[in-house]
Design a protein that fits this description.
Blueprint lengths: L2 E5 L6 H9 L16 E10 L1 H4 L10 E3 L2 E10 L14 H7 L5 E7 L24 H15 L2 H11 L4 H7 L7 H11 L11 H15 L2 E6 L6 H9 L4 E4 L2 H12 L3 E2 L8 E2 L7 H17 L4 H12 L2 E6 L18 E4 L4 H8 L1 H5 L1 E6 L4 E3 L10 E6 L4
Parallel strand pairs: 1-4, 1-5, 5-6, 6-7, 10-14
Antiparallel strand pairs: 2-4, 3-4, 8-9, 10-11, 12-13, 12-14
Helix pairs in contact: 1-10, 4-8, 6-7, 7-8
Length: about 400
């Protein structure tokens, strides 16, 4: 299952975001390091389900479908707040960085109101420029990764040169526990403009440059401009928008309030919607009604609370994923048990039919013969590149 990392300095609203996205009950506090051990949960990315287009009822098994929206699960990890010098062990230091090893993308929450200092201590809104919080996370991660690469580097290089192999492979093996692939390493080497044939000449500065490019290739970052509903925040948000980052305005507190109200049956609301409907107005107190009116005003202005949008954009924009539906019967669009459109798989754009077979099961990939596009009823070869919302049957030698 794909994993998203929820990161940022202390007291930016990460755990509120996590609770809103997962309906968990992780501890929330207005002070640094409320989160010490990482919170791990499951959230969902939205996709259009083919069921309505095809005018049929589906039977989701690994996901869920609500009125034509397929909710595909992804894992999310909320780690302790990061402070400057974490790579040296400051704050909760390497524990934070180590928890992010297998995250495919990072959502970096920024206190857009500028109401917390560098260590997460509360300040009056507008006291800090959120732009100061942008780059430090990348710097900490890059220096942490540089430390991993440089440890025993000379000995590592000598061994590689004796084996006379491609340097990208042993480097990938060295950092494979961080979710970094050989393709990531090859891309990073090109971007860093390092000579792969003479790694013995790479300096500490070169290794830092390599680490930076490895992080960019393997841990893309989306900015969650949180607390955008607070005083001084909108002006800061406009500055964040002018950067090269993908930025989503949000109010994690508003999303959590809506999710809790929906959970109690007080409102009808789906994550990512621009409005909600009160279903039990008689059970709402004056304060609750006023709070919901305020939240609706936020939705009218910004379109959503931003929490679901951040999750969706991290999966689709940063990671460039598509959703594909495997079936065993291309005529009835069912699995072997008769479930209609049972599973929804998130796969990278450009995934081929044979690569998809391997993602389902290694045996299916090993015995792959061809596939069938259930939408067109056409036979497709192993090199066919899957498209979003494709419905595919894999034909294998074992299944014949």
């Amino acid at each position: 299952m794909l994993e998203l990392g929820l990161v940022g300095k202390p007291n930016t609203g990460k755990t509120t975001f996590f609770n809103a996205a997962t309906l968990a009950d992780a501890a929330i506090g207005g002070y640094p390091f409320t989160t010490i051990d990482a919170n791990i949960g499951v959230t969902y990315v939205r996709s259009r389900c083919p069921c309505q287009e095809l005018d049929m009822d589906c039977d989701p098994q690994n996901s869920r479908c609500e009125n034509g929206t397929r909710w595909v699960p992804v894992r999310i990890i909320d780690v302790a707040g990061l402070v400057e010098g974490a790579y040296k062990g400051k704050g909760l230091g390497n524990q934070f960085l180590d928890n992010l090893r297998m995250a495919s993308a990072l959502i970096h929450l920024i206190d857009t109101a500028g109401a917390t200092d560098a260590g997460g201590e509360p300040l009056p809104p507008g006291s800090r420029d959120p732009m100061e919080d942008l780059g430090f996370l990348e710097e900490e991660f890059d220096r942490w990764l540089t430390g991993i690469l440089s440890d025993g580097w000379s000995r590592f290089v000598r061994k590689v040169q004796l084996e006379k192999g491609d340097i990208s492979k042993p480097i990938a093996e060295r950092v494979s526990g961080l979710g970094i692939t050989r393709e990531d390493v090859s891309s990073a080497l090109r971007s860093a403009e390092l000579d792969p044939d003479s790694p013995e000449s790479w300096s500490e500065k070169d290794l830092f440059k390599l680490s930076k490019n490895l992080r960019k290739a393997s841990k893309p970052i989306l900015i969650g401009a949180n607390k955008v509903d607070m005083e001084k925040a909108e002006e800061n948000y406009k500055k964040l928008e002018e950067t090269d980052y993908k930025v989503v305005p949000m109010s994690s507190e508003s999303e959590l309030a809506l999710r809790r109200a929906e959970e109690k049956g007080l409102i009808d609301y789906k994550p990512g919607d621009s409005e909600f409907k009160i279903t039990k107005e008689g059970k709402l107190g004056k304060k609750q009604k006023k709070a919901l009116e305020s939240i609706q005003g936020f939705l009218d202005k910004w379109g959503s609370t931003g929490v679901q949008k951040a999750i969706d954009r991290a999966i689709y924009d940063l990671l460039e994923m598509i959703v594909v539906y495997p079936v065993d019967d291309e005529n009835h669009l069912t699995d072997k048990k008769g479930n209609v459109l049972p599973d929804a798989f998130l796969v990278p754009e450009g995934t081929t039919a044979k690569e998809f077979a391997y993602q389902i099961h290694s045996d299916l990939g090993d015995s792959f013969l061809h596939a069938i596009n259930a939408r067109t009823d056409q036979r497709i070869g192993e090199g066919y590149k899957l498209k979003n919302e494709d419905i595919i049957r894999i034909v294998s030698a074992k299944g014949r």
